Amino acid sequence: MSELRMQDLTLVGRLKGDPIPMTNGECYFKIDAGANRPVPCFCNEKTATNMIKYLKDGDEISIEGKLHMVQFKSEKQHTLLVFARHISYGRKNRSLVSGT
């Protein structure tokens, strides 16, 4: 097992919306991990290609990544983002699989 640092985390939950491809090849997505709000996440190009191809809204995933705080220049506002290093796919959204 790799050394854990304070900003390392693991989240398990369901995708909130389909993964969104970005112009730089990365992918933006949100995961509903049982918190008050969905957690915004990014992943690299290779992972993004597979996510867009195989995952849809409501599918279960597990991500390991790093927590980053980002400040927007136009506003004096900070937000936390997760940069995913590893993503494991879980069960598919049942309503999409069964067609109901």
From TrEMBL:
InterPro entries: NA-bd_OB-fold (IPR012340), Primosome_PriB/ssb (IPR000424). SUPFAM superfamilies: Nucleic acid-binding proteins. Keywords: DNA-binding. GO terms for molecular function: single-stranded DNA binding. This is OB domain-containing protein.
